[in-house]
Amino acid sequence: MNETIITSKQNDLIKEAIKLKQKKYRTITNQFLVEGYHLVKEAYDLGLVARLFYVEEAIFLNVESYQVSQNILDTLTEVIASQGLVAVCNKPNIKEIGNRVLLLDNVQDPGNIGTLIRSCAAFGFSTIVSENSVDYYNDKVIRSTQGALFKVNLLSGSLSDFIKNNPQIKFYVTDLKSDKYLEDIDDFNNDIGIILGNEGQGVRQEIIDLVERSFKLKMSNMESLNVGVAGSIILYEIAKRS
């Protein structure tokens, strides 16, 4: 623990932490910011906290910790009423893919990404693969996951490559033009991958063309649902049948 209170934005540690608000620096450093006791505790329990900034009390032991002024903490946090705690965390190591995978194609709303991460954690989908979507470590995504961020394997990269390189997985694409509904599918017992698309455009045609199986949700009065809601319904239904 450093006994000097940091009060300047020009402090090298603060400047490095501020950079983590940008995706490119999160990618370069393989680190991200977490704020608030609950999320910091989740990261701490997993050994992911690299550095801690606090206003009044250093709560966690055996972590490089620095007391900062409220003004400095406000510079690091994105919420109006912070809890006086911000941590620089290392991104979790990539784990085994598992037999339930969610693929996201160009999903742009942080709330939708956060909702889907939580639903994956709740309904047994151990891995998410995302292409051209909001960064998992965007501050709004992190807050909306309520800690589920640390319970799911988060991958980024080409969906087409992932599909081609994992022939053992049965991939299903959601497609409003499909002639099948979710309830028509009866073979969700093996390795499966569900593909969800952009809020306005859906899944790209090139991805649809790679996948033999498709379905849509049966509904009344609406053509489609918010991707976070639709995806959560799908994951729940699959978990219920498995």
Structure explained in plain terms:
By secondary structure, this protein is an alpha/beta fold. It folds into two domains: 2-90, 2-Layer Sandwich (60s Ribosomal Protein L30, Chain: A), CATH 3.30.1330; 100-241, 3-Layer(aba) Sandwich (Alpha/beta knot), CATH 3.40.1280. It is 32% helix and 22% strand. It is built from nine helices and eleven strands. The chain has helices spanning 12-19, 23-29, 37-45, 70-76, 110-123, 139-145, 159-165, 205-208, 227-241; strands spanning 2-6, 31-35, 49-54, 65-68, 85-90, 100-105, 127-131, 153-156, 170-174, 192-196, 213-215. A six-stranded parallel beta sheet has the order 8-7-6-10-9-11, with helices on both faces. α6 (139-145) links the parallel β7 and β8 (153-156). The radius of gyration is 20 Å and the shape is elongated. The N and C termini lie far apart (49 Å).
CATH architecture of the largest domain: 3-Layer(aba) Sandwich
Structural class: alpha/beta
Number of strands: 11
Q: CATH-wise, what's the superfamily of the largest domain?
A: SPOUT methyltransferase, trefoil knot domain
Q: Work out the strand percent.
A: 15-25%
CATH class of the largest domain: Alpha Beta
Amount of helix: 25-40%
Give, in order, the helices and strands. Answer: EHHEHEEHEEHEHEHEEHEH
Rg value: 20 Å
The averaged pLDDT comes out at: 92
- Quick one: overall form? elongated
SS summary, helix count: 9
Cα(first) to Cα(last) distance is 49 Å
Structural domain count? 2
What is the subunit organization of this protein?
A: single chain
The residue ranges in which pLDDT falls below 50 over 5 or more consecutive positions are: none
Sheet having the most strands: 6 strands, parallel
According to CATH, the fold-level topology of the largest domain is Alpha/beta knot
- Across the major sheet, the strand order is 8-7-6-10-9-11
